[in-house]
């Protein structure tokens, strides 16, 4: 069983930066994939970024490429999302998620992930 706890959300002005953290308790095996999703009011949860635990290969949604960076710290069992050049449309609750295995055709679906954090609010003011 894996438990995920996000932190680092808050209020920031457009153009600013935030770094989200996701601390995982329990054993993270090399087969795991860790991801960030977000959900704005009235919208579906959407994929933001993912990282494969084994080789740190990363994947991004088109709307965050060049602005957000996902990374992981194996020793701390923690995944980060560095968010730069934030826009008001980035405002959402950001969720950390984990899957026990990798599937290239499914990693961007929320239903692919078995474990979820409680979410952290990110608000970007204009």
User: Using only CA atoms, what is the Rg?
Assistant: 13 Å
Low-confidence stretches: none
Q: How does the major sheet shape up?
A: 7 strands, mixed
Question: How much strand content do the residues show?
Answer: over 45%
Verbal overview:
With 126 residues, the protein is mainly β. The chain is 0% helix and 49% strand. The chain contains no helices and eleven strands. The strands form two sheets. Strands 2, 4, 5, 6, 9, 10 and 11 form a seven-stranded mixed β-sheet that branches. A four-stranded antiparallel β-sheet has the order 1-3-8-7, with no helix packed on it. A hairpin with a 4-residue loop joins strand 7 (68-73) and strand 8 (78-83). The radius of gyration is 13 Å and the shape is globular. The N and C termini lie far apart (40 Å).
What is the structure about, briefly put?
Helices cover 0% and strands 49% of the residues.
């Amino acid at each position: 069983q894996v438990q995920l706890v996000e932190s680092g959300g808050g209020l920031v002005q457009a153009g600013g930066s935030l770094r989200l953290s996701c601390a995982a308790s329990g054993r993270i095996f090399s087969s795991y994939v860790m991801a960030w999703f977000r959900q704005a009011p009235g919208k579906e949860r959407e994929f933001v970024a993912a990282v494969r635990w084994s080789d740190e290969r990363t994947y991004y949604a088109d709307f965050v490429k060049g602005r957000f960076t996902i990374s992981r710290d194996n020793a701390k069992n923690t995944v980060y999302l560095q968010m730069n050049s934030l826009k008001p449309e980035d405002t959402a609750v950001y969720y950390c998620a984990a899957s026990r295995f990798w599937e290239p055709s499914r990693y961007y679906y929320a239903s692919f992930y078995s474990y979820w954090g409680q979410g952290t609010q990110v608000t970007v003011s204009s």
